[in-house]
Amino acid sequence: MNKKKFTPFTTSEIKPQGWLKRQLEIQADGLCGNLDLIWPDVCDSKWIGGSRDGWERVPYWLDGFIPMAYLLERDDLIKRAKIYIDAIINNQEPDGWICPCPYGQRDKYDVWAFMLICKVLTVYSDCSNDERVHIVLEKALRCLNEHIKINPLFSWGKFRWFECLIPIFWLYDRTQEKWLLDLARELKKQGFDYNDYFENFTDIIPKNEWRFDTHVVNLAMCLKSDSLYSLLDGRNPDSFADMAIEILMKYHSMAAFHFTGDECLGGGSPIRGSELCGVVEAMYSYEHLLANSGNPKWGDILERVAFNALPATISEDMWTHQYDQMSNQPECSIMPEGKVVFGTNNGESNLFGLEPNYGCCTANFGQGYPKLALNAFMHNEEGLAATLLLPSEVTFTFGEAIINCVCITEYPFNYDIKYIITTNKPVEFIFSVRIPSFAETASVNGIAVKAGEFYNIKKEWKGKEEINITLSFKIELLKRPSNLYCLVRGPILYSLPIKDKKVMHEYEKDGVKRSFPYCDYELFPLEKWNYGFVSDSFNITERNVGEIPFSSENPPMYIETELAEVEWSFANGVCAEKPVSNTILSIPQKMRLIPYGCTKLRMTELPKL
Q1: Of 197, 525, 540, 592, which residue has the fewest beta carbons closer than 10 angstroms?
Q2: Separation between Cα atoms, residue 394 and residue 410, nearest integer Å
Q3: 504: how many CB neighbours lie within 10 A of its CB?
Q4: How far, CA to CA in Å, does 249 sit from each of 255, 266, 501, 520, 603?
Q5: DSSP states of 160-178
Q6: What is residue 107's DSSP assignment?
Q7: Which of 13-33 are b and which e, b meaning 16 or more Cβ less than 10 Å from the residue's Cβ?
Q8: CA 207, CA 211: separation in Å to the nearest integer?
């Protein structure tokens, strides 16, 4: 087995601070923190002896709920997580089978959920140090090893085979048992070949047909597939992901630094959507890529997705979310049948609700912020790396010394970053800080440094020392595929916010209640939205981050510029892909654009007039 460049810390070593901790608290008090109390697919799941979903939803939910609970040190949440883990462990069959499926139906059970719960058990062990997980996981993976000899991978399991490498390698690090590596090789042999898919890529234009290979979540997950397998066979950990992301962003990009998929690849139009599951799974892939190769570019992409695409598709109280977000969405209403702009998703997919379109995102979105927080710092034999520029604190042992490092910052809303490193005894190590490639200038303790790489400080550290980083970013209008433009400054994309009227829907469907605050909402515009850029002058205002970091009413920053009205058609709840013409229809007026992640109704891609 090859070594990773960096190893993330556990929840006992790293803690979120500042706005990031506040965001996790909002999540804990919102939908993710309460699914086991209100959503039948979790609270009455077959995983705990109930009658509802016995496949991916409980594992998906636990994958975010567990690290969130431990990062916040919330005993109430930790106890509730343990109820589920205890039930799953206690219900494991003698032969190691760990999913709620009768013996005679195993051949039809898609083992994607088997792989996922094994991964979740490693997350739980890293958080809790529960000694049972080692034995449970070994039995489960031995069972899977025998199962796929008779029942080869199919469906989701075939297209997500590499996710099982995570628990396999976790266990191998602790046992060094060679059969685990043989299982990894067999999974690859039976799994879908994404290298071949992208090397012979033909899905340039959206097909608007449901397929596993163009499914946005599968593609978001697969970005880390070769990087994971490189730990086994020594291949370049970045080459596949470099190829895949270049193709995806060439033909299917969003302004929010992500790619479209509603449900499958959707092209570059600002009114095609992208699924929330795809956002958090892409983030998870970038986290593995960053750890495995140490290439700072993955931190750049990860931050931009985390600060834009993730918050934009979840309500401020985190009780509701969209299935599909759109770059230009001046309205979020039910699209009439036959008039839906999405490829294979229904006309409710852009509503904010409990489970619009499908409940996978309901269960899965919770992993986004906790795993982001866990990757703020990483470590290796040389020392400590500040891999993401997030307010955090880490305490760990290096040799015989105890090192504490605190990052004090409001980045990405402010560009001054302070690290305070304290050691209990003199110790030599390298402290590395990722300097984003999109920084126009960067300095460390007043000395200019190069963007797009790690800046390394190798020295003997003793007592308390400070490292001050200052970044600057230029404002850019970036051209988009529809001959429109979006406004970007460093890690943040900006949008024209549109005041909305919320129409609440409380009802019951398939035994699932939608009740406030986890009901469904349509959003209708209360002001004009059909504007274009008419000036190259942009004025930035920065403010302190409030109680709601991604607030639409009190955004932590905004840019003022002149916009003017254009003729832009609208029908069935959706604006046209681009204006009818670029003729100016009104006197230009100074207007305010705010971070994309702070918006719900918005126009992001606008014409230059």
Answers
A1: 540
A2: 17
A3: 12
A4: 10, 11, 34, 32, 20
A5: TGGGGHHHHHHHHHHH--T
A6: G
A7: ebbbbbbbbbbbbbbbebbbb
A8: 9
